[in-house]
Structure formats: C-alpha cells, structure tokens
C-alpha cells in the first residue's frame, strides 16, 4: 500500500480529521494525547504561528515514542518552503487552504498526500490534473452540503472533506455524509479555544469519542 493510500484510508476510516494549533508546546502535546486516547489515528496541526514548526517537531518525537499508529499532518501550507520544512520534520500528509501547484509537484512524487482547499469546480479540476486525489472543501460553511451534492458526480475519482463550519451534532455531520463526503474536518467546533485555554483535555477526548460514534452510526 502506498503512503498516500494509507493516509487516505486512515482519515476515511475514522471519518473526522481533527485540526488545531496552540502556541504552547505542552498544551499541543496534551491535546494530541487526548485525541489519540479518543481513537484518532490521523490529526492535522495547523501552521498558524511562530511556534508551529518547533511544536510539530516535538509532536513527531512524542508520536514516535508513544503512539506509533498516529499519522501527523500539517495544515495551512501555502508555499513550497513550508512544505519542505515540514517534510524534513516528518509530516505524514499536507493540507492547504487553497491549491498550490508547486506544492503538489513537490509532495505527490514523494508519495505524500496533499489535500488542497478548493471551492470551485475550476480549482478541483486543476488539483485533479496535478495528481491530487483528496480534496478539502474550504470554507465548508460558505459552500454547504448542497455544493458537494451538486459536484459529486462530476468527480467520481476524488475523495472530499469539508473543513470550516462542520458542527459536532449528528445533524450537521449527517448532512455532509449524505451529500457524499468521505470525512469531515473539525477544528474549533471540536477543539475549541475555550477548552484549550482551560486545558480541559478530558472534554476534548469525550467530545471526540462522541463524534467518532456518530460517524460510525452513519456508515
């Protein structure tokens, strides 16, 4: 099995991809451990602050020592320089807010999954032509499940995952899966700023378990 297929299968099997960023290394690692305990085996850390690269490097170190099954992805990749840095740091997959052709050309030949954010058929066509197989619908709250339903038959060979605006409720999650997505990306609705601020790792774990349970009932 290729690395791209392994990552794709892992994300699809769990059905939700948690994503978060925290400037504090300890908080970052504790959230990672909480997600792992909840059953998560693929997570996206977003490159949205000065501490992102050093924190991610530490995450890889801890993963290798304590949770070998966890796949660590990096999000908010906007250029090749960033992709190179996190490739060296050991990222298992890469996610962008938009499609960057140079990033696709750098990662895909290395058998690394690249999931760019797209919100138009034109962008999706460009990504597919570059070898992308897993599309992030972004921003999901602006597009809505109706967009997924409308384009699904045009792109039968692609997998889709909305990020942005997906709630932790069964109604929200179900509406996306019924529309045809393979997974849902979940950021602040799951790992909220408030939970990070109060270091409420137990609630993060429990809420993640609930989401995973909801998704299993929908499959």
UniProtKB/TrEMBL annotation:
Pathway of action: Carbohydrate acid metabolism
PANTHER family on file: 2-DEHYDRO-3-DEOXY-6-PHOSPHOGALACTONATE ALDOLASE-RELATED (PTHR30246:SF1), 2-KETO-3-DEOXY-6-PHOSPHOGLUCONATE ALDOLASE (PTHR30246)
SUPFAM superfamilies hit by this protein: Aldolase
Name listed for the protein in its UniProt record: Bifunctional 4-hydroxy-2-oxoglutarate aldolase/2-dehydro-3-deoxy-phosphogluconate aldolase
CDD domains: KDPG_aldolase
Keywords: Carbohydrate metabolism, Lyase
Pfam family, one: Aldolase
Cell inner membrane keyword on record: no
Quaternary structure and interacting proteins, as annotated: Homotrimer.
InterPro entries: Aldlse_KDPG_KHG (IPR000887), Aldolase_TIM (IPR013785)
Gene3D superfamilies, per database record: Aldolase class I
UniProt family annotation: Belongs to the KHG/KDPG aldolase family.
């Amino acid at each position: 099995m290729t690395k791209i297929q392994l990552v794709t299968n892992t994300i699809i099997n769990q059905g939700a991809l948690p994503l978060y960023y925290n400037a504090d290394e300890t908080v970052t690692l504790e959230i990672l451990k909480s997600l792992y305990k909840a059953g998560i085996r693929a997570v996206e850390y977003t490159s949205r602050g000065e501490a992102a690269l050093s924190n991610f490097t530490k995450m890889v170190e801890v993963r290798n020592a304590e949770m070998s099954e966890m796949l660590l992805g990096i999000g908010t990749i906007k250029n090749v320089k960033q992709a190179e840095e996190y490739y060296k740091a050991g990222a298992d997959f890469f996610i962008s807010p938009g499609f960057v052709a140079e990033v696709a050309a750098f990662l895909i030949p290395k058998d690394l999954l690249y999931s760019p954010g797209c919100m138009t058929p034109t962008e999706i066509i460009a990504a597919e032509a570059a070898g992308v197989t897993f599309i992030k619908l972004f921003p999901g709250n602006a597009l809505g499940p109706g967009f997924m339903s409308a384009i699904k038959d045009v792109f039968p060979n692609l997998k889709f995952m909305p990020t942005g605006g997906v709630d932790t409720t069964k109604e929200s999650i179900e509406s996306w899966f019924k529309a045809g997505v393979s997974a849902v990306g979940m950021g602040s609705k799951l790992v909220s700023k408030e939970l990070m601020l109060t270091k409420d790792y137990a609630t993060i774990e429990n809420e993640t378990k609930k989401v995973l349970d909801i998704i299993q009932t929908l499959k």
